[in-house]
Write a structure and sequence with these properties.
GO terms for molecular function: DNA binding. The chain is 14% helix and 33% strand. It is α+β, with helices and mostly antiparallel strands. The two termini are 27 Å apart.
Length: 168
């Protein structure tokens, strides 16, 4: 499936972190129309990383998707990042994303491990998970808090070598 069939020839989608959070994620959370529909909705935890590139396009080296947060337990706050073949593991610190000196979001890096924790084998799949924020202590906006806490924007990369992955 080619998700970019409706864009002009030569189109390349290379948004900055600020654009991803400040425009695309903010509009998605607010249920507002996005001018160019280039980011698809997927159920991230029902699809393996090597299957996600089939949803994207071969012309890109990275792929962008919206997905809902999957909870590990129905009443808990822990995020489920497991798929049938493995799991996404957060690495490093979350990176703050600013627009005009105001905190608008955070980016987390994750790496995909094949198998089950703690014995998973590190792969070359990396993911950046973006979330909205409004201030330095991470308090989400009061408006649309129910929706905001469950919608995330993800960027996937595949490299020849294992690299750090970002996650929310």
């Amino acid at each position: 499936m080619n998700t970019f069939s409706h864009v002009p020839p030569g189109f390349r989608f290379h948004p900055t972190d600020e654009e991803l959070v400040g425009y695309y994620l903010r509009k998605k959370v607010a249920s507002k129309r996005i001018d160019l529909d280039v980011i698809k909705d997927v159920d991230l935890y029902k699809i393996e990383p090597w299957e996600l590139c089939k949803i994207g396009t071969d012309e890109q080296s990275d792929w962008y998707f919206f997905s809902h947060k999957d909870k590990k337990y129905p009443t808990g706050t822990r995020t489920n990042r497991a798929t049938k073949a493995g799991f996404w593991k957060a690495t490093g610190r979350d990176k703050a994303i600013y627009s005009k000196h105001c905190l608008i979001g955070m980016r987390k890096t994750l790496v995909f491990y094949k198998g089950r924790a703690p014995n998973g084998q590190k792969s070359d799949w990396i993911m950046h998970e973006y979330r909205l924020e409004t201030n330095e202590n991470g308090t989400p906006p009061v408006i649309s808090i129910q929706i905001q806490t469950h919608i995330f924007l993800f960027t996937f990369f595949r490299f020849a070598f294992c690299l750090l992955v970002t996650d929310l």
